[in-house]
């Protein structure tokens, strides 16, 4: 589990010079996968790997003979590790592949992307315990955390068709809302549009219907991780969510980053899974030695906002959220996958598991406006003086993430951005 090998060697550099720059999201130790094409070309999307400020076209480099990311994701871990080793060796400084592979590079500035794989099914979990507690207080002051929360990884089945790649604008949704003091609901544009800072876990190898995946095997079924913004219409949500959970408040758009950072790339950035004293320990099917030792991910996340006015005036985006995944997530990715399949439910390559909003324990680590503004009661003031309770038309939100640790080279996730249209 979490094996460190030559592909993680901090001394390894690339002949793609931009990959060696300090602070690059895509050094040779990362090698995330996405689907790209030349901007405006209208060609079919192809599988690429980000390296520095370039994309390596895997088919042009002779590494795959398909454009089907899902087929690549379905490979067993040994196959994935072999491809990673080939990529790392070929991109390493001094490689004999340099002359040939240099022809297969496309500058990222010339690329456009799509959702990195075909997402057949999408499930959103609720692993952020600080988020669940704060939101719970707003919706149900008497009982913020439901009695099942510390026993069951809570989730709901989302909708895959409205998942979009970073950079895709979306329209403010319309729907039914009902003010607490109103006798009847009304219809109109959402007034409480929010973001949710999440990670998306992509399933690699699937499992057959009726065949649960045990906790110790769960990570072998995960391909990798991307950034995920689960845009949420809080006023629609409040009126519709009982008794069956979120519906139209969530399925009008969800934004993913173009790149999937593989589980192999994350091996140096694992952290122990622990439970606070006094909390129940997970049931045996959600507990395993490897999960305890390194089930958590040491990832830093941040969210930035740029309003239309800031964009016009050339002001840089302002930070809304900054926090650590391991301080936010009550359940690990392995636990989510083991729980999802324990009843025999079959997952397929490319399925997406949302982490739920990853709010840390402190106010600056709150992963949604609902929390930052206490349900819209306390506006936040941006550096230029503008105020926000919820998102306004023209606002652009940017999610970023990275891993940093002594003895390892920093890797990043790129970004997941989206702009609200009227
Ligand atoms: Mn969510």
Structural descriptors:
eight-stranded mixed β-sheet; five-stranded antiparallel β-sheet; 10 helices; 26 strands; alpha+beta; SH3 type barrels; Fumarylacetoacetate hydrolase, domain 2; 422 residues; single chain; binds manganese (II) ion; 26% strand
Notes on the protein architecture:
This protein has 422 residues and is of the alpha+beta class. The chain folds into 2 domains: 6-114, SH3 type barrels (Roll), CATH 2.30.30.230; 122-421, Fumarylacetoacetase-like, C-terminal domain (Fumarylacetoacetate hydrolase, domain 2). 17% of the residues lie in helices and 26% in strands. The protein contains 10 helices and 26 strands. It has helices at 69-73, 77-91, 98-102, 129-139, 234-240, 289-294, 308-312, 325-328, 333-341, 369-372, and strands at residues 33-38, 46-51, 54-57, 105-107, 111-114, 122-125, 155-157, 163-165, 170-171, 174-177, 186-189, 193-194, 197-203, 222-229, 232-233, 254-256, 261-262, 270-271, 296-297, 300-306, 318-324, 352-354, 380-381, 387-388, 396-403, 411-421. Strands 6, 7, 8, 13, 14, 16, 17 and 22 form an 8-stranded mixed sheet that branches. It has a 5-stranded antiparallel sheet with strand order 4-3-2-1-5, with no helix packed on it. It has a 5-stranded mixed sheet with strand order 9-26-25-20-21. A hairpin with a 5-residue loop joins strand 23 and strand 24. The longest helix has 15 residues, at 77-91. The model has no long low-confidence stretch (mean pLDDT 97). Bound molecules: manganese (II) ion. Residues 124, 196, 198, 230, 354, 356-357 line the site of manganese (II) ion.
């Amino acid at each position: 589990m979490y094996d460190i090998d030559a592909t993680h060697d901090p001394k390894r550099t690339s002949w793609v010079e931009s990959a060696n720059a300090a602070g690059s999201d895509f050094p040779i130790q990362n090698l995330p996968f996405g689907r790209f094409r030349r901007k405006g070309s209208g060609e079919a999307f192809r599988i690429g790997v980000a390296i520095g400020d370039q994309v390596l076209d895997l088919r042009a480099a002779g590494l795959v003979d398909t454009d089907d990311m899902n087929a690549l994701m379905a490979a067993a871990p040994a196959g994935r590790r072999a491809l990673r080793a080939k990529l790392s060796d070929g991109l390493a400084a001094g490689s004999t592949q340099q002359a040939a592979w240099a022809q297969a590079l496309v500058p990222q500035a010339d690329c456009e992307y799509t959702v990195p794989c075909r997402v057949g099914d999408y499930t959103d979990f609720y692993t952020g315990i600080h988020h669940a507690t704060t939101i719970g207080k707003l919706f149900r002051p008497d009982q913020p955390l439901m009695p099942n929360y510390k026993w069951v990884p809570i989730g709901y089945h989302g909708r895959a068709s409205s998942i979009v790649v970073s950079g895709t604008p979306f329209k403010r949704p319309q729907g039914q809302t009902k003010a607490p003091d109103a006798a009847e609901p009304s219809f109109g544009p959402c007034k409480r549009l929010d973001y949710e800072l999440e990670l998306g876990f992509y399933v690699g190898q699937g499992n057959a219907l009726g065949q649960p995946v045990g906790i110790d095997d769960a990570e072998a079924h995960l391909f990798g991780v991307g950034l995920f913004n689960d845009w949420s219409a809080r006023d629609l949500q409040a009126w519709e969510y009982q008794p069956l959970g979120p519906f139209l408040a969530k399925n009008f758009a969800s934004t993913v980053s173009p790149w999937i950072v593989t589980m192999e790339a994350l091996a140096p950035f694992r952290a122990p899974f622990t439970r606070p004293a006094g909390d129940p320990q997970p049931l045996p099917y959600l507990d395993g030695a490897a999960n305890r030792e390194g089930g958590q991910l040491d990832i830093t996340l941040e969210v930035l906002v740029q309003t239309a006015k800031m964009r016009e005036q050339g002001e840089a985006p302002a930070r809304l959220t900054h926090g650590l995944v391991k301080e936010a997530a009550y359940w690990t990715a392995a636990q989510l996958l083991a729980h999802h399949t324990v009843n025999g439910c079959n997952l397929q390559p490319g399925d997406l598991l949302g982490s739920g909003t990853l709010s840390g324990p402190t106010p600056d680590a709150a992963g949604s406006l609902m929390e930052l503004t206490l349900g819209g009661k306390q506006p936040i003031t941006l550096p230029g003086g503008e105020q926000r309770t919820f998102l306004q038309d023209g606002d652009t939100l940017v999610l970023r993430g990275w891993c940093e640790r002594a003895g390892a080279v920093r890797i990043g996730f790129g970004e997941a951005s989206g702009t609200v249209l009227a």
